[in-house]
Amino acid sequence: MEIGTLISLSGYFLLMLGIGLYAFRAASESSSGYLLGGRQLGPTVTALSAGASDMSGWMVMGLPGAMYLTGLPNVWIAIGLIVGAYFNYLIVAPRLRTYTELANDSITLPMFFESRFEDKTRLLRIVSSIVIIIFFTVYTSSGIVGGGKLFESSFGLSYELGLYVTAGVVVAYTFFGGFLAVSLTDFVQGCIMFIALVLVPVVILFDFDSYTGVRETIEQLSPTHLDIFAGTTVLGIISSLAWGLGYFGQPHIIVRFMAIRTVKDLKVARRIGMSWMIVALVGAMATGFLGYAYTEKNGIAVGDAETIFIVLSQVLFHPLIGGFMLAAILAAIMSTVSSQLLVTSSSLTEDVYKTFINKQASDKQLVFMGRICVALVALVAIGLAHNRDSSILDIVANAWAGFGAAFGPLIVLGIYWKRMTFAGALSGMVVGAVTVLIWIYAPITIGGQPLGRMMYEIVPGVLLSTVVIIAVSLLDKEPSHSMQSMFDSMLGKVRQ
Which domain holds residue 305? Predict the structure, then answer.
């Protein structure tokens, strides 16, 4: 490894660990402080933290890899994500921030579901916790896979060592600093990702003198790379756009809305967050698209398309800058892994341990359990990540669909429809999650095509979940007076 690269990466690791230690005191004071930062995040940190935790290793590895392989048809995914993220800020964030505080100051989504629907059976809390634990453990493994590929491709080190180093640093600062450390590191990581994803395509464009040179090169190599409709179908475009539906049910993103200081800060956060997201997504796509032209023109071998950003960082820049670029990949990976670890830990601590094992647990005991759960989930995710052939984009797509279908309709209808009932909520969540699992894993084909090849599983998952929630709620008796009163109080506070 070049000394410049080593210096850059060492500095990055030390900065992340330093932030974890800085946040240690605030995180140790209470369970709410460790798991939700005391609801005191400012709009800038909220925006970049939400963006960085959203745009994981798939944005600097998975999406550029897809653009490298097939080109512009992948733009539909980005369009869907931008529209979905914007409406998530606009229609979900204000009401959810207000409602979770009114609903017994809920600091996890399962806790909110239980309070919102006055669930005495605790089934909503149990089932939603199971969904979070299963899908997030798998989701976390995708980030650790990215770390393993990074260390193997860039440093010639073993894939397994990359898994342990990536997970080890993330666990360390999450373990000590909790939500505040995760949010502050996400902010720094978001800044690093932004710079890197702008810098790489700009340098390639200078090498070609203009976009015309890039276009001519790609036309000679693969004209279909330039056709946004190449190889697509109507169902395929709908599936790509449907990625945006997932935003309404992603706990690691939504928890940022729950933690922001005030509802009024959300407007500023939306502007910052959407600006960051659009530039970062365009940069990620341009990296894969322009990188295809650059590597083919210069005869540079790219063994794994998902490592195109890594290859470009090594050949385009001085080792010191190259180290910064590799830090951007680690930033993308770690920002999401840490958020997912913390949300899973929150669910295990508040929704399992405190609810069913130790109802009288003190704040110190809950913080301790939160830290233990962070380490346990990381160990399971590392075990899953040992499958080195895993596609980052595929793993993310499956987990994203699972959360989007299980929680998306439940959250949106839950904060907009007063008539929604506990039975409707539970039925919709189960149907959404099960539909996604069947769509992915059931040996069912239509015309010789697996269901997942025909349409992204989030589409049937969200549709069926929504229909079931509405149908079951209408067949059920009306919500209690207290439940309707809390809904009205939420509306009143949002409108103030």
Answer: 3-392
